[in-house]
Amino acid sequence: MNYVIGIDSGGTHYRVLACDLQGGQLGSYTGQPANHYCMPYEEVSERVNRSIDACLAQFGGRREEARCLVCGTTGLDSAEDEALLRGLYQGLPGFACPVRVINDAELAHYTVTGGEGVLVISGTGSIAFGRSRAGKTARAGGWMFSILGDEGSGTWVSRAALHEVARWLDGAAPAGPMVQSVCSTLGIADRGDLNRIAARSSVPPWQVPALGKLVNKAAGEGDEAARAILKQAAGMVFSIVEDLVRALGLEQTEPDFKLGVWGSSILHSAQTMEEFRALAARRFPQAVLCLPGRTAAQGAVSMALELIG
């Protein structure tokens, strides 16, 4: 049976979707992340092959029957990354079909906006990708946290929450609902507990505790520190949009443009999304806000079907 494969390789999940040539779903699998910055190449390859095989096993698909494979992946940030990842996917055993590997931000951009305008992602990390009507492309953000990247992302929100715990331990901030919740969840009673968590978060694979849900719950309960974190997160995510609009020259060349939003850290946070909408309305009233109507893996499948006509 001929089929195409779409892959969304993110910082938290590795999603594989196989569809027939009419777009009907045949198999779907979510496996462990496969980021080459966080693990040896051999482990990345093993995880990729295991997830693909788990998807194909759902419908008895054979690798040689694939007509096209499209993968949107995190960690594609340089020529070296592109060579490594393209080599990995084009060298997958048994596949003889065309393979396209792109940055996950470009895939999300295609999925949400159809391939034009600007898209900002705020999930585990943050990044923006855009394409003008003249065909110029650019990206902004997507840098590692060690150089103040991941602005406003889930990782940034979690670090900000831990910083507030540090301020409480310093006696400079009250133990509000957010601080209490974080300390209870992570077992933090003193400086030593927090320092041990910080040490684990400072080296690969950068295991920062995911605290976004706790921060949002506390914000909903009126915790001022939590609300301030989410407001700042929205502003930082929007600053990436401003950088990208400037890089593409959209204000000067396009009377309107699409502004897509992607990622659980913003879409699943009512306050962050509300703040972002307000900033967009004030700064770019000509922008048409676009929200996801399908998954990134579905977008990758659509791109694969387009590639084979």
Question: How would you portray this structure in words?
Answer:
With 309 residues, the chain is of the alpha/beta class. The protein has a domain of 120 residues: Nucleotidyltransferase, domain 5. The protein is 46% helix and 19% strand. The chain is built from twelve helices and ten strands. Strands 3-2-1-4-5 form a five-stranded mixed sheet, with helices on both faces. A hairpin with a 3-residue loop joins strand 6 and strand 7. Helix 4 runs antiparallel to helix 8, helix 7 crosses helix 8 and helix 8 crosses helix 11.
What's the structural blueprint in terms of helices and strands?
Layout: E1 3-9, E2 14-19, E3 25-31, H1 41-56, E4 66-73, H2 79-90, E5 99-103, H3 104-113, E6 117-122, E7 126-131, E8 137-141, H4 154-169, H5 177-186, H6 191-200, H7 212-220, H8 224-248, H9 250-253, E9 257-262, H10 264-267, H11 270-283, E10 287-290, H12 296-307
Parallel strand pairs: 1-4, 4-5, 6-9, 9-10
Antiparallel strand pairs: 1-2, 2-3, 6-7, 7-8
Helix pairs in contact: 3-12, 4-5, 4-8, 5-7, 7-8, 8-11
